[in-house]
Structures are given as structure tokens and as C-alpha cells.
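Q: C-alpha cells for this one, please.
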Amino acid sequence: MTISGRPAFLSALVRAIRGSACALVLTLAGGAAAIAQSSPGVYAPGDAAVTGFSGAVRPFQIEPGQDPNLRTFIDPDGPSLRVIDLRRMDGPPSAQPVGVPKPFTVSAKMIGQVFGVAVDDKFNIYVAASSAYGIAIVAYGPDGQPQRIRQGSRDATFMAAQWGPGGGPGSIWKINGATGAVTLFANVATGGKPNSAAALGGLAFDPISASLFVADRETGLIHRFGASGSDLGAYDHGIVGTAAAGLPSAPPPPAAGADISSPQFDSARPETWGYAAPARRVFGLAVHGRRLYYAIAEGLQVYSVGLRDDGSFGTDARLEVAVPAAAAPSEISRIAFDDAGRMYLAERPAPTGAQDFEALSVPSIGRVLRYAVIGRIEGGKPIWQPLPDEYAIGLAADFRNGNGGVAIGYSYDADGKLNPESCGGFVWSTGEQLRRTADAGLIARLGRADALAINGLQGNPVWRVRRGEQPPLLSYFIDYADAPFDSSARGHLGDIAILRLCTRPAAELRMAPAPAGAPPFVGSPIPPGLQICKTHVCGPDGSVCPPSQIWIIKTNQCGTGCPPPDIVINGQCCSPIDLEPGGACSSRTPSTDIGKPMCGAAQTAIGADKQCCDNSQIYSGPNGEQQCCAGALVNGKCDPLKPKIPDWACPGCCAPGYTKTGGKCCLTSQMTSTGQCCASGQTPSADGAMCVPRFWLPKLSLCCAPGFVPTGKAKCCAAANLTTSGECCAVAVDPQDRKQCPTQTSPPQPCKRGEVRNSKGACVSATLQPTPAPREMLRPKCRPNERRDARGGCVARKSRPMPDTPPAVIRRPTVCPPGFVLGPLGQRCLPARGGRIIGPPVLGGGRDGHLRGGPPDGRR
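A: Here is the predicted structure, written as C-alpha cells:
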């Protein structure tokens, strides 16, 4: 970002830029060497640690009239945490799905459902229990088998894999970065009382004090834990933070929490889950510049508080920004910073309480925003740009398909290879349905029509902010679960953390203050078509404040500070009344009540479960009640056998997605053409005539050496040794009968020393078939100045810039003639008298109609 100012500021600005460039060189020095020397464990710098919902397993067969949701359970074997290798993409970013290795996965049966994630300086990973995907409870049914229940009851318990073994809603899990061992790091409790259901929010690690911070969604406290897992104290925004902003205190209620044994608890109504009040409910956390940044639900506000050297909390809390309102209730679930000090905010839509585990959060409203410091007022408090930059996330709807995670990663060269010297330059976000679009032309351009409904990661250059209605085509997309695509899934992704190694943070580029004795600035109208109010503070009348000045509402002019008790927020001096919901400085959030209907702008919450339905698919049932059709209405009517939210008034009917066969209701995807219902672990054959063992190949993730193929257990097997059921045999199978491994009377003889077994199962010299390192290239590396050609050989590299890279612009200072001064943008000469602007620009004096002092915008 380049900001032009008055000639008095020019030299100071150039010095600031030069200082930042020098600091940047120091930051990058040693980056590649540090990565090269990192531990070869389960996590390496530059990898992404990503959390997500582990998925659900629906019953393959039910009785007619039975609700399948009662027999739908969390998948304990599904991934709750995955380490994703981001080192090699598939060429330059062009909205393509990229198959990358996922070298480490932790299932739900080991840690439960988690959202917040952090990586420490020893490459250990921490994850926190979460209710962001919903809270599921079960009880024993009439048949003696567990079934999901909606309301609390005396014998209710949490569903298996909701929380990790031996843990609960307040659990923090630690994954050893070297060995992958999973241990219970801590259980968050307040006054000896554990978290009851609302669970935890974001995590943030402070490398200086080796402290781990976590947000308690039930009490609103931020806890600090030491390296041993001991609780070292808590910070209460409801008391300390509100006082710093001059707002009324928001103490915790005397009986906070939820009780799943009470009928008042409703798993379909998030307001009964025991969340703290919006004024004290914390979610996203980040440590930056010896301050802890944290996000509050009410008004989508971001605060910060200083950290002492030992990691304890300071007493200088302050309000940083109030984020513009979203289309529906949401919270800032992740805060991240790049090396230029810019703040990135990821938005998590509110939970829905969906009983079918599909749309777990409100769809198509999750944003990723960026704020930059544009100046500082008296006392050094930063002035954040009043209007944030936004990134387009996903191709669907309004390009707001984020799921609440954002992190900064290394950038890439033109071949899609990670550049460890960059130590930044790429934004990675979690999102839903990322390549799905209704634009037929765009679908044809994208290709890979089988990989549109990706729930996973989007990566794009940091400079590629949203440009109107342009989709994010300069992006990579990575699927998270590597499972069959689910076009109904929403909110299934969680948080993301990426550790980058730099020797020191880069210097922050700041605007130079006005020199002492300079005449007061007189604002001028904003030139049309310029986004000046993103880089300068603007008044309500359109006047532009000079650098390091803000707008004082009471005096209706620019100034260098706020008179007490006002505080600066979004470039304005705001009183405590202005900050309250609906005030002049509030974000005007539609609702921060997590119990309100939380559907998209074109949806309505209907039915007892308050599930979201497209307005075009709502129709009236037999008794006048609203129901949701699974497809488009025909003349205002819907097939009564296909409601999205069935009332189960038809005892002989099958639920949506099920087909009647043999007096039972079979999951349609499990039924053969002959009417047989395939049991769990089976699937209809390719011709649909019979049930065969399910053989699942991980898609887009596992790359094997030539002659080897991936198996259902995420291992590489010699193609000659693989059966049709996916079993990898110790020896080559019979080509005429690949259903099972050959019968062996004795195990095969091991290969001699210096030999390895090739893809055909024969022992050959090791020099003919080198064993690839588990996380390195399968071929010898090329030299730094070389690349690999189409035949796999190393050839001299030609310098190629990344596509659509913004060109460097060098601006020369504009020299004005006598009687003229530079305008507020430093790009036009305006008539002046006594140093003050007295009128609009005077055109003429040249063939192009501009001032003689220089061509338009100072270009030469």
C-alpha cells in the first residue's frame, strides 16, 4: 500500500519505507536454514494444523416412519485435526483443487470435536474442545440401544466422540510435534467448577513466556496456562475490558452453565447451551507486539491487553476495532497478524443446532477481513483503517463462505513451490463449498466438476483482496476430509494455525506525523472513485483527515487525540454511549443473541428444530404449518414424501434420503438395483447389482511412487499386490483372481542386503528403486536456479513472475508552480493563498487539460 502525502511528509515517509525494507531483509535471513533444520516429526514449519467436524454416520436401514436423526451418530474415526503439507502446490494458483499430503491425522475418538488450534515454538500442537459444530446428547431408547435425543433428560449423556476420552467441554489436548502422542493438556475450570457444555473458543501461544491462552465460552474468561498445563490466572473482559472502554460492567451470572439432565437444555437451540452473555463472550485470540488481542461477540469488537514478560495480564486494556455487521449473527473466531502488523479477522457464523449434522452453521456469511494501521494518535495508540479490506472466500453466493479460520503462510514461486525465504505472503482460510458455483461458464472454466463442493482450505496471495464481484480465481483449494463430497455440508471446517520461522518481526510502516508548527489542516471533499477512506480517516461530510489524525465527533473536525472519556475506535472519537449497541460507533450488528433464528438472508428457520430452509422451498403442510421441500416447488406444492423437516405423521413413509425395500427403509446410496440394502462397511457394486466391501481411496491427498497406489489405510501398496477389496498383500496376487491374497505356506523370503522389492514384488537392486523419504520429493532435487521440465529433468529456470502480480509503481514527487500547493492526496496541484487551499483544481495549461505542474496523479 502506497500513501502519498504533503511534501513536508515525503522525506519522512521515504525514510520509513527504507527502514522497513532493511528490517524485512533481517526478518528473512535464515528462514530457509531454519526450516531445513526443523524436526522431522509430525509437524514442520509451514504446515497447516487444521481442525474440523469429524463427520457423522447415518443408519443404513431404519423402520418406516422412523426419524434417522435418532440413529445418526458422530463418526469417531473421522478427522478432528489434520496436519496438511503446504510445501508444493500444482503450479500457479488458478482456482484448482490441489492434492497435497496430509501426513498426520487425529480422529475424534482421541480428542473429540475441537475448533481452536495453536502451535508452539517446539512444534507441539494444541486443540480446544468446541461446541461450534453443535452439542449432541444421547439416552437409551425403548429397544435398549442408545439414540440421539434433542432435549435434556435425567439419563442423558454426551454422545461418544463429542469430547475426547477422559475429557469434557473444557479440555485442551496436546499433540507432541515429534512423536504425535496425544495427551490431555488441561481441563479449564473456574473456581473448581468445570465447563458444563459451551466449551472453549480460540487458542493463542506466547513464545516469550511459553504461555498458552484459551477463551472460555461459558464464563467469558481468558485463562493462561503454563508449559506444564497449570492454570496461571484468568482475565475478565466483562470487568476489566468494559471499564477501560467506559462501558457498563458485564459480570458473570451467579448460575452460569448448562445442565443436560434438565429438559431446559435443547440441542437444537444454542441459547440453552450455557454461553456467556455477548458483552463478555470471547472467541478469537492472538498474541502480537506483547499484547493479547481478543474478540468480543457484542458489536463484533476486538480488544487488546498488554502482556508482562512472564505472560501475566497487564492493566492497559483498550478497544481496537468494531467490525461492520454481518448478514446474520456471527463472531470473530480467529485473529492473525502478518509481518507488516496488519490484522486478519475470520468470522464464524453462529451454530444452528442442526439435528442431521449437515448445516452446522449459518451458510454463506463467513467473512475474512484485514485491518492495517494507518497512523498513531497521542500516546501511541494505533489508528486502524476505518473500513477493512475483505477477501473473497469461495466461489458460491456472495464469496463469503468462510468457516472461521485464517492464518498467514509462506508464499510460492511460479511453479507452486513454497518459498521459505518469504516468511509470509499467503493467506489461508477455512471454508465451505469453496469451488461450488451456479455460474455454468465459470464451472466450465474451472474444470474438475467432480471437485466443486470442497470443504477445506483456500489459499491466495495477501495482496489479492476482494475486487467487487470478482471470484477468487487466484487461489488454491484443498479438501480437508478426503471423503465423498457433501453438497449439503456447511460449517464443517474449523480453525487453522501455521508456524513460520523468522529471525525477527519486520518493522511496521507508519505514517509520519505532521511537523511541529505546521498550519492546521483544512479538509477537502473526497475525489470521486477513490477509496481514500480506507487509508485515511474521513469525516461524515467526506472531508479527509491528514495522517495520524482522527475525526472528533463532538467538534466535527480532525484532531490528534480524544478528550476523556472518549476513546478512538474506527478512526473516530467515541463516547461510551456511542459504543453501545445502536450507537454512532457501534457496528450495528443485527443481533448478537445466539438464540435468534440464524439463517441466511434468503432463508427462514422453520419447524420445531428451527432448521434453515430456502424461502423458495417453503410450503404449507396439511395443518397450515410451514414445511421445507427438499427440491423446488411445483405450482406451490411439494412431494409429501420428500420434506426436509418431516413431521413423521406418516407411519409407513420413509425419511428423505431413504427408499422402501422389503418392508424397511434403506439409505438410498446403500441400495442395489435388486432391492438389497447393503450393510455398513459395504457399498453397491459398480453395476449396482450386488453388495461388495467398501473400498475407499483417499482423494486429492496421497501421492505414491510410480508403480504404487494408495490404499484405504492411507498407505502406498505395490499395484501387483493389491486386491479388489483394497487389501495390500505381502506378495503379488493372481492377476486372474484379485479378490484375495494368495495362500502362503510360508512368508516370502526377505530381500538381500542392498535390495528392495519393486512394484511387481520382485527383489531388485536398491539403486534401481530408491526408497523415497516420507516427506521429501520422490526424485532428486534440482538446484536453486533450476526447475524440472516435463520429462522430469532439471533445466535452467527462467524468471517468471506470479500471474496477475501487481507491478511496482515508482512515483516522483509533483512540483507545484507558485500560488499552488499539493492537495490532500499529494497528486494534484490546487490554488492556495497563505498555504490554504482556496478552490477546486484549475484545469488548463496543457493539451491534456491538467496543470503545468505535472501530469495527472504525479505520473511522468
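A few notes: The first strand starts at residue 48 and ends at 52. The two ends are 20 Å apart (CA to CA).
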